[in-house]
Amino acid sequence: MSATLYQQIQQFYDASSSLWEQIWGEHMHHGYYGVDGTEKKDRRQAQIDLIEEVIKWTGVQQAENILDVGCGIGGSSLYLAGKFNARTTGITLSPVQAARATERASEFGLSARSHFQVADAQAMPFTDNSFDLVWSLESGEHMPDKSKFMQECYRVLKPGGTLIMVTWCHRPIDNLPLTIDEEKHLAEIYRVYCLPYVISLPQYEVIARELGLQNIRTADWSKAVAPFWNFVIDSAFSPMAIWGLLCSGWGTIQAALSLGLMSRGYERGLIRFGLLCGNK
């Protein structure tokens, strides 16, 4: 990962994570609003439901040693540790996130089996065949080399283990390349959210097959999660959020002002929410 992008991502999450936790809680990802996106529910419950629905979709029923790639402040890691009575390791580029995740593990009595550290997902500090479940929930979009990222996930996965990846994608381009206007829309999203680029779900599947991943399954849950961004937009106008934004710096303010980019991206079918799972 280039030093500049690494630094941009680190600084973005160092600055914004505490505000996100204050307004939204520990889960820094989309929520699930039913297959067609019409279910009404508490926003934090929707985020927990996303984790549960992903697990249900993959069919994973047990795990002993889990890696959470792009762990944020430990939302998924600690949830999975409790659900599966497992050991969890979370990695992030943000020292602020790693420190807060460690604090939260202590608060939940999970310090003995939940560990968090700063690490590059494209050069993980773990030996081959270390984890029986590799979980990546909305981190793939930050990776400048998607193939290298997935190769690392595959490398640290135990034989027979499961890779679960959920990530932002753009629409498939097999039959119709992205238009100039779509490219401009994506470029604005990349700039605001410190993303190098995103690819389509079919492109991720090609990478997974080239790696030798078995039993590959994919799904597009764009409709199920699209309402999330409107809830985020609404929450950004609360007095607490406005004050927090002012204290968090220009990068966080810019991201808040640009929330509509993602909402419009879903509306026009450009942004897609892709799932991929498979076994080593």
Mean pLDDT, to the nearest integer, reads: 90
Major sheet attributes: 7 strands, mixed
Looking at the structure, what is the overall shape?
A: globular
DSSP E strands, number:
7
**Low-confidence spans:** 241-246
Residues in helices, as a percent range: 40-55%
> N-to-C SSE series?
HHEHEHEEHEHHEHHHHHE
Strand order of the largest sheet: 3-2-1-4-5-7-6
Computed Rg: 18 Å
Q: Tally the helices: what do you get? A: 12
- Structural class category: alpha/beta
Distance between the termini: 25 Å
DSSP strand content: 15-25%
Describe the structure.
With 280 residues, the chain is of the alpha/beta class. The chain has 12 helices and 7 strands. It has helices at 3-24, 43-58, 75-84, 95-107, 146-156, 180-193, 201-211, 222-225, 228-235, 239-248, 250-257, 259-267; strands at residues 65-69, 87-92, 114-118, 131-137, 157-170, 214-220, 271-279. The chain has a 7-stranded mixed β-sheet with strand order 3-2-1-4-5-7-6, with helices on both faces. Strand 2, helix 4 and strand 3 (114-118) form a beta-alpha-beta unit.
